[in-house]
Write a structure and sequence with these properties.
With 335 residues, the chain is of the alpha/beta class. The protein has one domain: L,D-transpeptidase catalytic domain-like (Beta Barrel). It has seven helices and eleven strands. A hairpin with a 4-residue loop joins strand 2 and strand 3. Helix 3 crosses helix 5 and helix 6 packs antiparallel against helix 7. The radius of gyration is 19 Å and the shape is globular. It starts with 17 loop residues before the first helix and ends with a strand.
Length: 335
């Protein structure tokens, strides 16, 4: 929530009382927002509500930054082969218009773990300038290692809640296939697998969004707002606001990345050409086939929604180009 100044550190006793107290102290939508602007107190500490999203341990020790190419590659399991499924939320798919996507090779670049480094604060200009001073060369090297020129022309952030990972994909010529640049460990999230539906439910959204605002005076150092609720969310009556990707390592509905990693993401996304916004695709997990099968009997509506998300995920993985996604009659439509 980036509209009204607020204390920088709430007392620990207030951390679990977001709905009743934070809304009175800030604005009426505070409980959906994990990112008021910066002031004089540190961020609240939120208890883990879902072990798959919010690690119980503190962040890893921040070792001196190494160039990306010097780190040993991490291995990831390849995503499951997409399986045909009926999308109950999309008229086009109900008519049998189901694509046949190619399987996506798993990204093999090292996962960039979150760190304990804490920014000192300062004015908006100081934070923005400091992020570029500290991280620009690292970001350029990440792009160079991926075979791309910096700055990018298009940027896609793909988050997987179950694995607590955020991927960065980019190209240096608009319309070209996107290349995997980096994967970041999400330091903290909140809620459970499934979409965000209501103000104060602590859920991280799922769906297709973009970055629509930058806040260099965040309580959590730097933050970028995800465009929740989008047209589909509003059509379904979903509520909430100020869902962010930000620094620090606490969350009440946002994706916390730690300050150092947030500075890298900040430099990448702010480098896009004027008028271009980074896209943000939020998924419950990489194994959508398995998640859909698990919920088909237990929660058919959730399984149907995840089938919609799978179609959007497949649309990108088919050719690695930015998919065209729109909303018609409250449903995602993919081109």
């Amino acid at each position: 929530m980036d509209r009204v100044p607020a204390p920088r550190r709430l007392a620990p006793a207030l951390a679990g009382a977001c709905v009743g107290l934070l809304s009175l102290a800030l604005v009426s939508s505070a409980c959906a927002a994990c990112d008021p602007p910066a002031s004089s107190a540190p961020a609240p500490s939120m208890p883990a509500r879902h072990a798959e999203l919010d690690p119980s341990s503190r962040p890893r020790t921040d070792a001196p930054e190494q160039p990306p190419r010097e780190r040993a590659p991490a291995t990831e399991a390849a995503p499951a082969q997409p399986a045909p499924a009926i999308n109950a939320d999309d008229p086009a798919e109900a008519e049998g218009d189901e694509p046949t996507p190619r399987a996506e090779p798993a990204p093999t670049r090292p996962v960039r773990e979150y760190t304990q480094w804490t920014a000192e604060g300062g004015s908006a200009k100081t934070r923005d300038r400091g992020a570029h001073t500290r991280r620009l060369e690292t970001v350029k090297e990440l792009f160079e290692d991926a075979g791309l020129r910096f700055p990018p022309k298009q940027l896609l952030l793909r988050a997987f809640k179950d694995e607590r990972e955020l991927e960065v994909w980019a190209n240096d010529r608009r319309g070209d296939p996107l290349t995997h640049v980096a994967t970041y460990r999400i330091c903290a999230g909140s809620g459970e697998l499934g979409p965000k539906k209501a103000e104060g439910d602590y859920q991280v959204p799922e769906g297709f969004y973009k970055i629509d605002l930058f806040n260099p005076r965040s309580r959590f150092h730097l933050s970028m707002r995800i465009s929740y609720p989008n047209r589909r969310d509003r059509a379904l009556g979903y509520t909430g606001s100020a869902i962010m990707i930000h620094g620090n390592c606490v969350s009440i509905g946002c994706l916390a990345m730690s300050d150092a990693r947030m500075e890298e993401l900040w430099v990448m996304t702010k480098a896009l050409p004027d008028g271009e916004r980074a896209r943000v695709h939020l998924f419950p997990g990489r194994d959508l086939d398995g998640l859909i099968a698990r919920e088909t009997t237990r929660d058919p509506d959730l399984a149907a929604f995840w089938t919609v998300l799978k179609r959007g995920k497949d649309a990108f993985e088919a050719d690695r180009r930015m998919p065209a996604i729109r909303v018609e009659r409250g449903a995602y439509v993919f081109e």
